[in-house]
Batch of 3 targets.
Target 1
Amino acid sequence: MERVIEILEDLHPEVDFETCTTLIDDEILDSFDIVTVISELSDEFDITIPPQEIIPENFNSAKALYAMVKRLED
Amino acid sequence: MKEQKNMIQLFEDIEKQFPQKTALRDSNGAWNFAELGQKARQRARELSKVLEEEAVSRQVPVGIVAFHTKETIAELLAVMYSGNFFVTFAEDTPKQRREMIFENSGLEFYYDGGILRKKTGEPVKTIESEEIGEPENTLLRGYQCTDEDTLYLVYTSGSTGVPKGVQKSWGAMKAFAEQYQKTFSLSEQEILGNQTPFYFDAAMKDVFQMLTTGAELNIIPDRLFSFPIKLVEYLNEHKITMIVWVPSALKIVSVLNTFLAVQPKTLQKVLFVGEVLDSKHLANWMEQLPEAMFVNLYGSSEVAGVCSYYIVKQKPEPGAVLPLGQGFEADEVALISEAGERIFPVPENESAQGELCVFGKTLADGYFHDEDRTREAFSDNPFPEISSKKMFHTGDLGRYDTEGNLVYCGRKDFQIKHMGYRIELEEIELAVREIPEIVSNACIFDAKKDKIILFYQKKSKEPLTKKDIIAKLIDRLPEYMLPNKVVETEEIPLSPNGKTDRMRLMEQYRNR
């Protein structure tokens, strides 16, 4: 979870990722951020994120991202 | 002699020919050409009345907060109908930058999503025209606008920290629209999927293509670019035939393996502009659309539209760099050596490197109210064989490849292209310099990762976090200019002549 937050903080140091659950709804992450997040998560956790997982629900919070990572690791 | 029509008259020809055809579509529905024309003329009449009351008699700038909506286009066309010129800027333009734009352009009024406001922000009461149907349009000055009149200003990053207002004429845009239409056989049949925001100069190609050819301009909701499966589904559902996107937008679709889940079906023309598209991603797209035409466009804000193009012949090899191609007209883009001489293609060999310079009818008039910077970038054309009054120095370096195509070789200065935006690193550094806790700073650009990296040295013992720095910069810089990485350092390395040593910073960054 910490690594996920670090990746996000690198993109937007001004956001509190521990609590924010509206990263997409409030347009905090734009499309370029999403690409960066996906490539960093793939490298960091050695996973492949299929296009079907790239949906708003999975990117709205650090928690949701982490849940997706865990799911894909299994 | 051929009748000379201006772009308002060209638009009305289209409106008369295809009144019921869709002109614009966004997430709130569509307008046909008759509706767009009517809305624009109504706003133009209201605007003209307001300006008349203020006793404004010359061509004046009118601001437009550029939303990604049909309304913004109606406002833009309204300003043209009123015979004035528009200045678009993003909704989230930081206050300081907005003030600089207001001051430099001298604008007194701006549209803000359907509301006309004074520059103070106070809404102007416009008199709604009561007539049903349209009254005589003889009063609208736009019909009399000629090639020399100013069409719009677009503000671009300046290395002195003050943005430059590039001034473009009706004639330059019309000349471009004609070249573009002819080169790519554009007709009213195209359904154009617009990605670029309307405060971004590249978007004007899409807008004027719609206005002058009768194509449908489909404004793709921004959110879809985060979720590429939905994006490709949208392209298919709306039968989009043509896209002119920044490479990063094309890359998003390809890099996320979207094509494994959904394939584009209706695209025939895929054009990209603003920066380099990786050959890998281009190849992915080309595999999906073997029948489509792929075009690399090259331009600069100082030119209406773009000035050169390269039609991709075959799927590029990994790592191959796409050429910029050739000018739309002969001698539109030329290569000039440091000695000021022309460099020509060498048969079957690469030419020497030089600066890419642009000539001809599509050139901007210069930077608004800034003669010094205009003179620096737009010199008198010294080449009698090229018919052009001026020569614009892009600051881009290039050479001819073995086939005589122009190839991009980097910049003469510290201008970068980041997410399709043109940015002067010095402008970011100047904004950082205003933070009192910071002693010195410098920016570098990691082109491979498309990241701006800020190095800073702060006064000892000052409690200043990276978060604080970004929070302070948000008030001064547009979001796309914010550093992606902030690194604290003991000292900013200087070269022997006292300038920031960016090479050494780059080494430090790579060795971290």
Target 2
Amino acid sequence: MTLKKTTRTRFTRYLSKNFRDDYTTLQIYSRDMSDLPKVVKLFVGNLPDGVIQVRNTEDMQKIYEIANETRVPITQRGGGTAGFGGCVPYKKGVVVDTKGLESHFLVDPLELTVTTSPSIVFSDLQRQLNLEGFSLCSYPSSFHSATVGGWIAHGGYGIGSIQYGGANEQITALEVVLPNGERKRYTEFDDISLFVGSHGTLGTITEVVLKIKFDIPLKHQGCTFDSPSEMLKGLEQLSKINPFSIWFLNPDHVTSFNEVFGYNLPKSYVAIVSKEVSFEEEEKEFKNLFNNAIRASGGQILDRRYIKDIWDFRFKGFSLLGECTDYLVTEVILPVETSEKFFRKIISKFKGELHLEGEMISPTHYSLLIYLLFEEKLSEIKKTILNLKLYKITTKKSRAKGFPYSTGLWFSGYYSSIYGKEQYKRYQEFKRKVDPKNISNPGKVISPRIKFFPLVRLKAIVKIASRLII
Amino acid sequence: MSSSTDWHVDLLEIAQKCVYCGYCSLCPTFKELKWETYQPRGILEQIRMYFSEGIKEDEKVEVSKTLFEAIFACTMCKACENICLVDLPLLKVWEQVRQEAFKKGRWSPLLLSLYNKVKTTQNIYGLPAEERLAWAGLAGLNMSKRTKKKASIAYFVGCQASYSGKMGNVAPSVVKILRKTRVNFTILGLDEWCCGSPIFLAGGYSVGKTFAKHNHDKLKELGVKRIVTACSGCYRAFKIGYPRVLGDKWDIEVLHITELADELIKKGKLKLKHAIKEKITFKDPCELVRHCGLVEAPREVIKQIPNVRFEELPSNKHDALCCGGGGLLKLNDSDLVSQVNSHLISEIEYSEAEIVANGCPTCKDTILAGVKKNGLNVEVLDISELIVRAMEGEQ
């Protein structure tokens, strides 16, 4: 699709300099963290026809009005820091960059909430909250670049989620402009949960009210495990001591860590456990509980000197990518109880450096960032094959019972695996009601039909390719 | 002797190394302008397009428009390089792209004018070299005995402290400190040329070398071993620019006035006897803290003021906010400077400080403008002025 002259004129008349369609801007907004392989670009309209900086709710209503009348697809974009293709256009159209939204910041110290704009980056929000003695309940590892809106759209989890839950549990109200132009404020859990992980397909978030907490200091403990099974047992035990975060690394990741800091950590699984501690007695209690959990699972206590540096490294996992020539990254959610097989499988399937970084997001599940690092530049074909291999491992129904972290474009069609069939039904009903023309981020969540082969959906093609190619 | 290869980087190779994590979204001008074409990772993407072999000529022209616009919207605060997860040498990249813009004749007229002024008059204001010592006359100081005198320490005054009325107290303050502590120092006087900082910031290392060579030769003629400055731009030029263009030949130790003051305090030569009752904060200039890693000296000096009430700004040291005035942005977009500066002004207001000390004339000028615009009752002082106040009492 290329914008008709009249449509372009309508956008530019209303938005003036906040609408751009020059060559460079379109190119910049045609990707997220991972650029699409050339072969995929043939089937995906990832190059937008225009980019808009949305300023406020009224802008968003007007954009939807024009989009509905002209059937121009809208793709919302926050920080553009994930790799699921959620903010990458599928059917061209217009990218709506939400970073231009008016900023709000209003703390309610009695209700312990903050009202903010979805365009705010987590580190900025945390800094402002810290100045007032408060803190975010949980935040993603892309803390310095992810926007609150983008995080919600991806079904956000992160550091602190084991104690405070994910986006679903932390949002108390959402203001949304629906694709039909209606401006709505949602405060009920069931309504809010529809927008979490929906990648903007149900509307554009324009204001968020998040739960916050007092800025209680964190104390950290560290431990090591010799095998995945021991570590998983340890995670189960550690989850019972009500920690703020349990973050773990695999031996390859630890090796890199040794190289960066000149440490001599054993090449084993390392976990850092953090807990909010206000009093000395609480700290003692935490230490005791932690020691008991480690003893029960067969782990070893990590030398205290290393803990702070490892903890500070939690936002810097991507620094490893600078050391290699090529890489692939994905993220998956796994249950502690059944994921041992997944670990064994992924270790056996991929030759070369495999770095794993996990964060417990509930007492029973963890999110796992998988990095595959390569010494040599991968050819387009090899990269596509490896991507498919990763896709297969992430999506194939196995005894591990894991599922992708988010749907976006690449895992569109897996909404029900992540949120359940009942929720998917509610999602579909709502989508039909508010966006009958499917103009709000088409191609995401629900698997889209393929260009040139309209009878086939993307999910089916990728699934078949991932099975056949291997 | 260094060669151009020492400071030139392979732009395409660096652009391809970007992992697109987006941590560079902390860029102060991107935060204001919001378009990803201004975000460092977006600029790298444009560089990748601009230098890629397959690009068509008309596409290259298109890319160059946004690329060169973005590159001159940069304050060179180095926050992007500091946070970059894969340690890309972004400052070198921005400087080199600015040179590419120069080669393509795409500098703004104001920037070209500054460049020509510096080249022809050897100062950033285009004023006659004879007026370089006017600050001394205005302050009632007789510098004739100090000018071009053989000494191991030289005070490099810099263009802003020499010519700008707003900075009129900076050079006399430094001289007072040096005289009070009986430091045997010299100044280059009319032989002093601009340090070349604006030229280095524009990526003009070949032209900058002429300035470096001139100042170096003049300093060597006087037997100078250490050079002290109160300007963070000059400090950066001496610390980073000169070694790049002169190589091992540049063997003069570079000190910021706070480093020298700290040293003199520790030796018992400088005594800060007079209390300052106002609450003080310190704004770390980007060129001192992020470019050159100078963090503690200013704080050590301020701590020596009797009964001092010192409060850090919320964003301090390596995380200090940019004032918006750096990187030649003032020439290109003064409104953007003011937008970027507003965040720093909010932090100053939050700190409830009554005095904002800093170690950079550009920061001082920009903060002064912001304080005035926002009607804050805050005094903006160069750190040398603050030292003199603590040394001699309220002036």
Target 3
Amino acid sequence: MKGSLIILLFFLLGIGCGYLNMLPADAGGEDVSFYALCALLFFVGYSIGSDADIITKFRKLNPGLAFLPLMTFLGTLSGCFVAALILHHRSIADCMAVGSGFGYYSLSSIFITQYKGAELGTIALVSNVVRELITLLGAPLLVRWFGNLAPISAGGATTMDTTLPIITQTSGKEFVPVSIYHGFVMDFSVPFVVTFFCQL
Amino acid sequence: MFIVIAFMFGGILIGYLTRKKPFRYTQQVLAVLVWALLFLLGVIIGGNEQLMKGMGAIGLEAFIIATLATLGSVTAAKCLWHFVRHKDK
């Protein structure tokens, strides 16, 4: 919990700095976060490679975990269905299109802006950023309440890069292969699923 | 995307090669990098006018969809987790 609060604090500090333009234009650019991400993943890799027991941990993984992307998919769409019931003015297909960004906010918001206009596109952007934030900030609680697979499922398409470090820390290193596999499948499905719901 | 994954595999290789004498502060470095990344995500969001303006009305809708979508997926993940653990026992 303390970890999540520190993360939240840094995030809010970042918003403040970005909003008030306190940093030089390039400092907050996507480039810098890309390098930070590369460094992060390098160290995630390092912690896996230097762990002598890791191969035995991988072997203990259950083949049933291959179904995790399907569970994420069905669970997300059910959630979007309930959201559509609450938000009367949005159609079920619209809510499902937003939800099927699975945290991949850049791509899904671009797609939805093109098919459905800027308003729904912005909703997709914010909604998928929020999903990533819920995963990053809430991962410890998600593990406690919903089991070790929960942060992976919540992370959606981001589980092979941005949310992988937090998954490593909360679910355990042995879940890294599942997480990468899950992220890859979800990532790949985003353009197809979003397009499908936009055309309904 | 694939460059990022390549970095991870580079890390795995170097970690494996140096496993006899591992670098001890990996967890601390990871924590600092996660903070840096969230800070930078904040900077990007805070600097995006369209996003910051939309935070009011649109933000609530987005929040509802995101929360329910996440809740649905973690519930589904819990079912699979129970199933997998049950089989393991």
